[in-house]
Amino acid sequence: MRIASVPAGHVYVRHCADERNADGVVRLRDPRPNGAPSTSQRWWPPVMLDPDWVHAHHTDFDVFHLHFGFDAQTPAELSSLVAALRRHGKPLVYTVHDLRNPHQPDARLHDAALDVLIPAADHLITLTPGAAREIRRRWDRGARVLPHPHVVGLSRLARPRPERAAFRIGVHAKSLRPNMSLLPVVRALAGAVADLPDAELHVNIHREVGDPGAPAHAPDVLAGLRALAGSGVLRLHVHDYFDDDQLWDYLTGLDLSVLPYTFGTHSGWLEACHDLGTAVAAPSCGYYAEQRPCLTYGHTEEDGLDEVSLSAAVREAYRTRPRWRASAAVRTAERARVAAAHRAAYRELLA
């Protein structure tokens, strides 16, 4: 079975596949976008979303499976994609990762896209029961719940965590996604950490936040973080993007990773922490708490930050030192089940 996955190169999609590629499911490689060098693994913007690509390549695939990458598509463009698939008799599978797009401050943009994709899909998948319930409530469609597969490579899952005396709490601001409310969370954490012996607060942020020419430029946020670092309540690390190994080293170096989100749905970051044995404090928005064991605190777009619950989550992590960690054996078996479920869905649609 030949699957046009959008995208094929994303770690989620790669790890939904049979580990030995022995199940008869073949996923097409991502076509190289215009302007991407021949050596690049960049998949965005996804070429497969173009109806003209479908018309030109419909004999190359059996099922079209959409995951990510349609942020820039209008509802009309997505409708044209659906029409092209219908014209050539190609089933559409859609995995609903995001019910609220973390990159878009206006929820109406993603809602309009979902209003096209979810009713049109021949088969729906999502990651948590809560997301499935919301899909049922909003669109009266059923979605199969399949767990998020491992993010970290299986060979690294068994590597022991480092031993250290200090309790290290981390917030990684990345390039300040629209769903982050960073400074309020960091200030509340600084207050909580001050009362805990041998506790450290580390804040990481990408260098482009300080670049006047970058879309992520946010001088006020960076100035606020530097002021807090100057007062000694946190350690600030400004750096370029981590590669995978650097990111895994960073997460393994934390005892607690705090997600400073005000909206969203699911998290690959949380899954990586579960792979590496780093506890997570996740906000109450979205369905993060249904993905994997974690601590939670009150934080939503509507109600803002509940500092009391965030402080309580930090104290609980400090007191209990939770080690919720996936084993390589469990993740391998889980990946096999997820791959089999995808294969069965494709076969059913083609039958």
Structural summary, described in words:
The chain has 13 helices and 14 strands. The chain has helices at 11-14, 51-57, 75-87, 107-120, 129-139, 154-157, 182-193, 219-230, 244-252, 268-276, 288-291, 307-320, 328-350, and strands at 2-6, 26-27, 63-66, 92-96, 123-126, 144-145, 167-172, 199-206, 235-239, 256-258, 279-283, 295-297, 299-300, 304-305. The strands form 3 sheets. The chain has a 6-stranded parallel sheet with strand order 2-1-3-4-5-6. Strands 9-8-7-10-11-12 form a 6-stranded parallel sheet, sandwiched between helices. A hairpin with a 3-residue loop joins strand 13 and strand 14 (304-305). The longest helix has 23 residues, at 328-350. It is globular and about 65 Å long. The mean pLDDT is 96.
In short:
This is Glycosyltransferase subfamily 4-like N-terminal domain-containing protein. The protein has 351 residues and is an alpha/beta fold.
